[in-house]
Amino acid sequence: MDSETQLPWQQETVICHSQRLMQSFQYWTGFSLLDASGSPEEIAQGLFDAPFVLASHGTEPDPILNYGNRRALQLWELSWEEFTQTPSRQTAQEVVQEERNRLLSDTATKGFSNFSGVRITSTGKRFEIQDGILWNVIGEDNQLFGQAAVCSKCKFLT
Fold this sequence. Notes:
By secondary structure, the protein is α+β, with helices and mostly antiparallel strands. It has a single domain, classed as Beta-Lactamase (2-Layer Sandwich), CATH 3.30.450.20. Helix content is 33%, strand content 27%. It contains 5 helices and 6 strands, in the order ααββαααββββ. β3 (112-120) and β4 form a beta hairpin. The longest helix is centred in the first third of the chain and has 18 residues, at 12-29.
């Protein structure tokens, strides 16, 4: 089965990244994103179908989104292919970029941060994230793979 016909969570790179997301979140916060029992494939499916929004970006100079679970894709109104080609800065309006950049920098230093803020969908709808957590995604040797964010509370603004 090729990546064209696979669901995102079935791709080997996404399965590996899902492990990093889980392990990094546990490392920084002491909590688990979800019940982590099962095979790496089952965990990847669990994260993708989780009842919260989960997204991450890489380490490029202008970071590109590299993961979004089903709720994130629905929230930002993008397909997997569109989402994973989007610079993460485009998830926030220009007027909040300075605040967003400060949050990313603070998290890079501390490992994780709690946050709330207004973001924007691909079609221009504004929504507020409440009680989000942003953390550094690291590998087994503490190599930085980017940053990820999770939130359970989002509401659209009028």
